[in-house]
Amino acid sequence: MKSSHRLLETLIRNNNTSRWYHSSNRQRKETLYSTISPMGDPDTTVTPVLDGWLQKGNKVRVAELLRIVHDLRKRKRFAHALEVSEWMNKKGICAFSPTEHAVQLDLIGKVQGFLSAETYFNNLRDQDKTDKTYGALLNCYVRQRQTEKSLSHWQKMKDVGFASSALTYNDLMCLYANIGQYEKVRDILNEMKRNKVSPDNFSYRICINSYGVRSDIEGMEEILKEMESQPHILMDWNTYSVVANFYIKGGLKDKAIDALRKAEQRLSDKDGIGYNHLISLYARLENKDEVLRLWHLEKSSCKRCINRDYITMLESLVRIGALKEAEEVLKEWEASGNCFDFRVPNAIVIGYCEKGLVEKAEAILLDLKKGGRTPTPNSWGKVAEGYLNKGEMVKAKDCMKVALSLHVGSKGWKPNPKVVSGILNWLGDNGDIKDVEDFVGSCRRGVVTMDILMYHALLKANIRNGKEVDGILSSMEADKLGEDEETKEILGLRHIETD
Question: Which domain of life is it from (predicted)?
Fold first, then answer.
């Protein structure tokens, strides 16, 4: 089942096309946003930056802070957006209206969970409990699939007269989509119309999605036709891209291309998000010409591309095997002056690995390292996997050791168990004792739990070199790892080695 995050990403709600650009151009005047923007690590606090800005005698404008919160939310830097919002509130820079409370409530739900959002809502003054704050809490419940709480809160909204907008009905449709009850989505759409609430673009997109995920193309087309016939609906690229997505999944290439053309006709200038989606969909159709054509259009329309645009383009080119073109795009990015974002070169690193060009992938990582950049453990792990697939075990081992060393203290990456076990098996059969001990040590420092495969590698290496293994067996017992059939087979090698 798709998560609510995935669903809302597919059915993009906000088509605001404003874009912030970040470059190393030192001639530009420093602003509060330009100071906060490069702080991409969500674990890095921005409060000292905000305090420091004031201490330097700089002024802060409410409009600028609200714009920063808005943009951080768009870029999914929710923890930082919440910090800025809370800082504004604590400093008394702005008296929060229900709108600001709703934004903060939504951010609390995203960062801390629905229970914290619930507490924030309950502590609001009665005059701040409006349709906006009620709606923000409903959205928190829906996002975290709290069905009973969502329906109970929905009823409260009905009781106080806050359930008469398309937005609240959309949240309820999202709820049913999130929990996989897609058949109920159409029922909510029908209820909206019965209650004289006009469905908006998002209402129809959720309904279109509910038919698409069930592979009901006929039902999807019926809703699309109804949407196109509504005089109050201005058809947008989002809807046609969702339709194109399901046509692609259904193998209906011609219909997908027709939908993509309709989507492109509705793109506005500087809409990088829209271009990125269409580029990705054409890549799934393996249509390199259209991918490149749209990329040139995007660069012309948006004037300057941000890192997200480069990532999308590189991933798309890698998907269709256009590695030469991907290399050219990577060079464009390097010359763009954008802030360094490792995800950009990582897209082509992964592409090289998937195509078996592991040496080229490793060369990029080494070049980045020489330039003072630290590649991610994920990148080195992919290169290690590539070398393992090619049977180059020494290189696989060395690259995985680098990945594990980078993983110490970091989050979000776990080494591929198949790669680790493959290296351990090879080391047990071929490596010397020091190599095995070093790799096992790297695994343990990289927060990989000591398991029986590591002990097996140590046992085999020691037995091959005529060493005693009583200490290893004692450690196994201390770690509550009993001897299995493979352990017994390995121990049986002692007699063979001594014969």
Answer: Eukaryota
